[in-house]
């Protein structure tokens, strides 16, 4: 979990059992459990998944109660773990993406998460099929109209406090609030009610990466028992073996970030020149950070002999002057990415013609982004971009171009170890699921406790 999030939480003396031992099942026992789980999933009509911090440890996010968890180390008087990459650049694990594939195949009906890392939403789970019980460190919500805003930076507060931004819906403008609960905050009905509803309907609830100690969240899986459902507590990365047995394929994770380029123009006082400002800004507001950009190198059409520059400090902007007679120039941007991005940089060419566009290019964002993802699957290369929106503003005279850019591509493929999975389930290739091999191996699992607390 984000170390920043742990530090923002109110102090509490008793955080429950910590430092729980890890253990390995013998290989034959592990294989038998994977086979049984695959069979249960295959027969399920309404599967619900309940997740905790354990599914994100392989993403470089420390958990709380594991052997190297934040609270475990604190209780032992040891230094907290070093984050392997910035929180906002964490990428989904194989388990996250396996759940995405289950949802696409119609197997996973609903997902309930205690995590605040936002990785389920980022991985591709539809918002309407997800309850984030404890909130999302990257989401703000309007208390007036209910609008949600997913950011590419971590929200600065927790505890449902007001942030520095306002709702952008027409006629609203209310101050936004963070969505992450502190210890004393009650679980929001908006998340809790659909979670309870789907657990009651479930014939199978999978509990992944959770010690089941936080109440009332930990009581949700129990609701399936009354209707004859089953609860399965799954150890880490078992999902890869299950996916292989069901002849499914874990999809790649493709992260797309958005930014906007704003070119503002004005005549000089003597009307001989055009003064203009180039801004590279977040789509979440001109003052919002662009956490995935470390610096930007700006250069121009060589024939104009304009001075190049490297922008390091945000907000990123550059002022230049051209003769009024200049009708066209090209601005070349080299975006240098921050740590956690898959490639180091991306290059863009921005044509400037000193005319405000009368048209407004604005396709469906989802359609453009989906096409960009499809291109990334065919040609797995970071730095690919697409224009999402292009519009003109008359006062001040400006052109705004919103770009989508691929900053991460993670592939989870491999070859299935068929010799270790030579059972009836492996041979069932006619269930309408994708027939693709996935490499998997036995990994550590956690013992579970029955202690429930908040």
Q: How many strand segments?
A: 21
Q: Which word captures the global form? A: elongated
Strand order of the largest sheet: 15-12-11-20-19-18
Q: Percentage of helical residues?
A: 10-25%
Radius of gyration over C-alpha positions, nearest whole angstrom: 25 Å
Contiguous uncertain segments of 5+ residues: 414-454
Order of helices and strands: HEHEHHEHEEEEEHEEHEEEEEEEEHEEE
Draw up the topology in text:
Elements: H1 3-8, E1 22-23, H2 27-43, E2 47-51, H3 70-75, H4 94-104, E3 108-113, H5 119-123, E4 130-132, E5 139-141, E6 148-150, E7 162-166, E8 175-178, H6 189-201, E9 204-208, E10 230-234, H7 238-245, E11 253-267, E12 273-281, E13 293-300, E14 309-311, E15 316-323, E16 329-337, E17 345-352, E18 361-362, H8 365-378, E19 385-393, E20 398-410, E21 445-446
Parallel strand pairs: 2-3, 2-9, 3-4, 9-10
Antiparallel strand pairs: 1-21, 5-6, 5-8, 7-8, 11-12, 11-20, 12-15, 13-14, 13-16, 16-17, 18-19, 19-20
Helix pairs in contact: 2-7
Description of the molecule:
The chain is of the alpha+beta class and 454 residues long. It is built from eight helices and 21 strands. It has helices at residues 3-8, 27-43, 70-75, 94-104, 119-123, 189-201, 238-245, 365-378, and strands spanning 22-23, 47-51, 108-113, 130-132, 139-141, 148-150, 162-166, 175-178, 204-208, 230-234, 253-267, 273-281, 293-300, 309-311, 316-323, 329-337, 345-352, 361-362, 385-393, 398-410, 445-446. The chain has a six-stranded antiparallel β-sheet with strand order 15-12-11-20-19-18. A hairpin with an 8-residue loop joins strand 7 (162-166) and strand 8. Helix 2 packs across helix 7 (238-245). The longest helix has 17 residues, at 27-43. The radius of gyration is 25 Å and the shape is elongated. It starts with a helix and ends in an 8-residue tail after the last strand. Mean pLDDT is 82; it is low at 414-454.
